[in-house]
Predict the 3D structure of the following.
Amino acid sequence: KNEVEQSPQNLTAQEGEFITINCSYSVGISALHWLQQHPGGGIVSLFMLSSGKKKHGRLIATINIQEKHSSLHITASHPRDSAVYICAVNTGTASKLTFGTGTRLQVTL
Amino acid sequence: NAGVMQNPRHLVRRRGQEARLRCSPMKGHSHVYWYRQLPEEGLKFMVYLQKENIIDESGMPKERFSAEFPKEGPSILRIQQVVRGDSAAYFCASSPVQRSNYGYTFGSGTRLTVV
């Protein structure tokens, strides 16, 4: 079993829909990250969380430390949001990241 | 202020050749991480370096792979005698301090194809 699990693996939505991507982890962490990767492209860091909630534009990330769960929400989705969204954690005191397998999102017109 | 620069973006090597991947961290960042993304798989940690030091190489294959981050110049990931299974995207990330509260900045990756 992976230390970091994401769901769903694939997600198709229509433009304007509210999207939720989930991440669960099974180890103690010091921080959780949400990353975005466009096809053939680089990786962009969206959020780093250790507690609570963060918002940036149409993106919202939440984390529940007790339940070892985080969600990434996208409001008013747009085709340009189509990408792979990756959850990653710093386990314990480690500086390196441990990654989930990603959620492939496609937003259609 | 340029971000993390990786080059080359694409690299094709024949089996048995050497591959050298370069990563210049963001200005002011002295911590560098290398990750590998195999086709249709998630990202996996390879190595964590500070200037002139390897801090954690627990994800590096035991043979053919090495990494360095010299006092001057970029970090280099070196793969000797490449095999088809080395074909992957290799990403570098940097941070200003260990376990930065500011997160990590990633490069655009180097796509290695071994033919």
